[in-house]
Design a protein that fits this description.
- With 125 residues, the protein is an alpha+beta fold.
- The protein has helices at 4-12, 16-30, 35-49, 69-79, 85-93, 105-117; strands at residues 58-64, 97-103, 121-124.
- It has a 3-stranded antiparallel β-sheet with strand order 2-1-3, covered by helices on one side.
- Helix 4 (69-79) runs antiparallel to helix 6.
- The longest helix is centred in the N-terminal third of the chain and has 15 residues, at 16-30.
């Protein structure tokens, strides 16, 4: 059996034109075509290289009220429009609860910062 490392070294020294000629020679000798697998590999590679769409909408979830429940209730009332004191208290006491859905990353980070400053634990999904 041929020394594979030696073959690899020899192939590494070839120019692109020489490699193309080698591929054609091997296709002819073995009666195969490298075009279909190469195209499939290129298509798979292109799909894998396609940029992953960045998430633009986030949900802000109150996971725990913390020790300063009154401060958290006040912040919840500021974050969630239209909540009365009783509704905000109920929301905080029934954590984990979603505070806001479908908000931009900047707004979600700002809400998280305010809620954590009040003593709550918040996650962004």
């Amino acid at each position: 059996m041929a020394d594979l490392n030696k073959i690899v070294e020899e192939l590494s020294g070839l120019t692109v034109m020489e490699v193309a000629e080698l591929v054609k020679s091997l296709e002819t000798k073995w009666g195969v075509s490298a075009a279909a697998p190469v195209a499939a590999a290129a298509a798979g590679g292109a799909a894998a290289a396609a940029p992953v769409e960045e998430k633009t909408e986030f949900d802000v979830i109150l996971t725990e009220a913390g020790a300063n429940k009154i401060g958290v209730i006040k912040e919840v009332r500021g974050v969630v429009p239209g909540l009365g004191l009783a509704e905000a208290k109920k929301l905080v006491e029934s954590a984990p609860q979603t505070l806001k859905e479908g908000v931009k990353k900047e707004e979600a980070e700002e809400i998280k910062k305010k809620m954590e400053a009040a003593g709550a634990k918040v996650t962004i999904k």
